[in-house]
Amino acid sequence: MFNLTEEEIERYSRHIILPEVGGAGQQKLKEASVLVVGAGGLGSPVLLYLTAAGIGRIGVIEDDVVDLTNLQRQVLHTTSDVGKPKVESASETMKQINPHVQVDVYHERLNKDNIFALLDRYDIVVDGVDNFPTRYLINDACVMKKKILVEGGILRFMGLIMSIKGGETACYRCVYEEPPPPGTVPSCAEAGILGAVAGVLGTLQATEVLKIVTGVGEPLYNRLLQFDAEELRFHEVNARRNPRCPVCGEKPTITELVEYDHSCEIQAP
Amino acid sequence: MNADGSPEMLELNESAPSRGSGGVIELVVQGRPCLYDGDPDLGSLLEYRGENSLYVNVRINDEVLDQRDFENVPVREGDRIDFLYFMGGGLFVQPDRRRN
Prior knowledge:
The complex is a heterodimer. Chain A is of the alpha/beta class. In chain A, about 35% of the residues lie in helices and about 15% in strands. In chain A, helix 7 (about 130-145) links the parallel strand 4 and strand 5. In chain A, helix 4 (about 45-55) runs parallel beside helix 10 (about 195-215). The model of chain A is unreliable at about 265-269 (pLDDT under 50). In chain B, about 10% of the residues lie in helices and about 25% in strands. Chain B has a six-stranded mixed sheet, with no helix packed on it. Chain B is globular and about 35 Å long. The interface of A and B includes residues 42 and 158 of A.
């Protein structure tokens, strides 16, 4: 009936016992493929939960190596991993958690030359990046390829999440048409992040993936959820499609992928 | 008005009067009702909240503003105002949280 071994049935029994998931839902998880962009603050909980949940094939793309400053929030990696490529550390941890999961690692930066080929290999994309250029690149590519994207962002004590069905529901540009003005933003290291906030948002992203794959509940389509840890509040904003959206609006002006400058340093006026 | 002349924004509760005129307007900011008696434009509201206008998009009554000259955008009684923060992962300036 289902292509699950005895061991898998036992491993996933707390999923399978949920009437909304059941054996059929677990089978869908096993047959699903998810690309996670970034194995950092958001990527860590996303990868941990998707692996534990039994997603059949998970791709991880990340060009960075583990740094001591990552360990306060990037719970996929340990002290002994410092200096190691994050994809390597991620893969090792994931295989320890669940050997049934196929892990594809890409130790490279996502760019406009490799993104389409990568998207073709996966059902769902999860954004766990730490910069705007890649965030916009992923959004645009997912709209153009009509892929499902679970978008997430964190900073300091705040986070946001929205799910996007490329070309059908509101995309990131429907809300944030363009990145903040270049040359005016603080450096990545200056802004800071409360470690557990990454856990909250990444876990929500993983939850969205599991819901979308199994068909349980209502995905966060056309809605943007903001999290404020300082006040412990969630604020949901209706994020319907924007007719002016430059990539999925009525008259799109972005019809080919664009890559913004990756600089994130403050440039003195 | 506060003693230093800055506008006062109060969270509405059952005992708070809902005036909506005479310089005080009732807004829903980030999903929370509040009274605002500052200058009735978005730039002033942003400044009062300590938001950096470079790093936030604004929606009024579910419409994303396509202009960034916020001082020219009026805020009116009953407006629902949402601040959509850019959170790219590091590239952000946190608002100075003086008040909700």
